[in-house]
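Before our next group meeting I need something from you. Please put the record directly below this note.
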Amino acid sequence: MFLLVYILRVVFLFSALILNSFFNDGVKADYISKAQKNIDILKYHLKLDLNIEQKNINGEVRITAHKLFSEQNLLELNFYGNMKVKKVDSDSNELKFHHIKNILSIDISDIPKDTIELSIFYTGTPKRSGFDGFVFGEINNIPLIYNLSEPTYAPSWFPCDDDPEDKALLEFEITNDSSFVSVSNGRLIGVSNIGSKRTYHWNSNYPISTYLIAVYSSRYTLIKDSYQTISGKILPLEFYVLPNHVEAAKKDFAEHKDMLEAFENLFGEYAFVEDKYGVAEFLWNFGAMENQTITGIGYNFISGKNFARDILAHELAHHWWGNAVGPKTWKDIWLNEGFASYSEALYLEYKFGKSSLQSTMNSKFSENFRGSLYNPTNLFSETVYDKGAWVLHMLRNEIGDSNFFGVLKNYFEKFKYGNASTEDFKEVCESVSSTELDKFFDDWIYNDKGIIKCEYNFLNRKEKNLFTLKQIGDLFDDFHFNLDVEIVYADGSKEMKTFRIEKNFSSFELNPSKKIKEVIPDPDGKLLALFFKEGEQQ
């Protein structure tokens, strides 16, 4: 998700307290019950009939699930209590159920099989939740229905095991007025008309987390294109936009092919080639949402002037980081957002060179990141996005480019279509780089130790020249890192040296035959750090 965290830098709309309560509502340690953990959902077959006038949905979800324990007699699903469950059945036999608060409990004791199938019939007006939930909206007198379910708001509109780790296949039939185009994940496999209604039938060939399941329904115009992947497969590109945005969208979305090329070369082949990659316009004002194979982008970001490049790169990158490789729990969300944020910079580096990488990372720099990356207090904070990107940038400096990009490709291939934890990522890093990274992960990911702050000096002496460095961090002064130093000599020549810093105070001998004019620590901006010349700290 490309988020209003970027807008917050300028306008400071909310306090941290408000952000925390608004964005993290519902993400509790016991959100997933024991009964849910004993069931593996294999497939959702969703059917939604949308009623625009009443802002109501009539729904049916057919669930195929596997009991992890044969004696499991209860299926528990997350489903908001304001929605009405009309009936639950299996093989035409009605099942007993209880719908209390936000949990739907279904008695499956009469189903002897380990693999079960049941259908839930329900109705109601979805409660607006989190960023949006499920919305019956309108723009310029054009109705637009959409959802934004991250992190835990899919149950506001359909019964599900709302655990990001429980991925399942998806089939989705969306019915609306025949003047509407209804869009979802996967590939369109059929369109049918009954009276004044039209049903769009979508099928996903790959497992999906519930928070990434999408509904977009409006009077869209479809812009079609295609991209040839690195293995020669043809990937459909589908862009669903409002009629007045067609020409602007063609310009803004044209760069997707360059982005796909970059990410495939950096990370591996696009993981959903048998489905599509698509973008649909929706009414969220604060950015975009990476719903699997069909990103939603706020209508106000389509300009025809390429203002949305970073957003589009970010959401496409999620199809490697977050969608193909999902988070094991929401504690690991930096593996989604930090990775997608750094991918913005990697794309610009791939296309324009190192200077674009450096300027992008400079724009993400802050000395005021708060909280740890792992298990953050606020799932969608600047810390998760921008510090996450910086930690990956520093990891690259720690293990070197060859190892770093080897890590990304190995990590993607190993966990593709599944889920990974921060420890899983660490193990891949250590395996590929043959480097022990306990301290790096402890300092930068599992704890909040601030940023690197150092005081430095250089001394010209007859017998030897010295470069000194002292860590002076407010919270911590024992970071270990590789430090590039550019040395400018009095004769105009320059030299680059790399020093390993593993102490609070370090001293290094420099070329004794030349007088030093200046030293520049970290000239290429590889570290989340501030350097002050001795005696000049502000």
